[in-house]
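Support reply, case 0932

Customer input (verbatim):
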Amino acid sequence: MENLYFSSACFDGLGKEKFDSMIYEILPREFKGEDFYIGPSKGKDGGVDAQFLKSEKKQRVIQIKWREIIRQPLSKHMPEALKEFNDWVKAMLKNKNIGNCLFITNVPLSRKYSNLFQETIRINNNFHIQYWSFEELKNLLNKHSDLYYKYIEQLPNNLKAERDDYKKTIDELQRKKLIKRDSYSALKKIEQKFQQLFISNELKKKYYFAFLYLINPIYKGEKDKIKRGKLRKLFRITEKEEKSFINNLSKENLIEITGDLITVKNINEAKRILNEAIDNLKIDLGKIVNLFFE
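Our regenerated output:
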């Protein structure tokens, strides 16, 4: 499986116009058999960015909201995105010809805000409401990877360099994969190798941080329970120890925690530690990467 790079701000370089164009290409692929047209746009009052015409003469209405994530902390983007969503749903309730609504935002949502979005949907059950946030868009671009290369390749130099560095690291790790492995036995062998290397919890925390970069961003809640479980198994740490690692890494300004969303903040330090593992510790990290992305 190809590892596509997504930072929480990966859509920033597109701007609203290109972001909308990307969405307009995704929509017909996901809603096949429906006639689609763009607009009209009505500004900040919960207006319509796109519509699908349903055969039963009810419309599927889509609202697209792009935000420049890097301009402010996610803790500010999330409540603002929720307000936009709630205001839009209220506006849509006034239209009796609407059968389905889809709200699209590039904002990553913590579990708290995902639940608040779901609560709005539960309360307003007069018609079918959906939303796509950063997580859903990431999954859709993994599914339609040609659109990833068409649009994310257009990132500004600073974000493109970050993505290219990530891809280079992943490629280097994958080249080290020498044999086709059985997942369970591979993990057991890697665990044993790690135990010979980690002589202290401080060293474990250091490498735990580097591995967060490989699966960045990651959620503390149910969304990434499997990935985090593999991390704990790899490092042989308990959930309590993992929580301590995460809290300390946040205090050291290496990661940012917004709700249950964890993003690597100091990417250069994470890459430095990964390179140390590749060059000095002689661990086949390619197998580890595959364990997380299989």
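We compared this against your earlier run and they match. Two observations from our side: The two ends are 7 Å apart (CA to CA). Residues 74-93 form the longest helix (20 residues). Please reopen the case if you see a mismatch on your end.
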